[in-house]
Amino acid sequence: MAGTSETDPNLVTSYQFPQLTYSYTERDAALYALGVGACSKDAVDDKELKYVYHHESIQVLPTFATLISVEFLSWIKQMPGLVFDPSLLLHGQQYIEIYKSLPSNGCILNKATISGLHDKGKSAVLEVEISSYEKESGVLLCVQRMSLYLRGAGGFSKSSQPYSFSKYPSSQTFTYKIPKSQPFAVFEECTQPSQALLYRLSGDYNPLHSDPKAAETTGFSRPILHGLCTLGFAVRAIIYRICQGDQNMIRNITGKFLLHVYPGETLITEMWVDGMRVVYQLKVKERNKAALSGVVTLNYFTSSL
Question: Does the active-site annotation cover 204?
Answer without folding.
Answer: yes
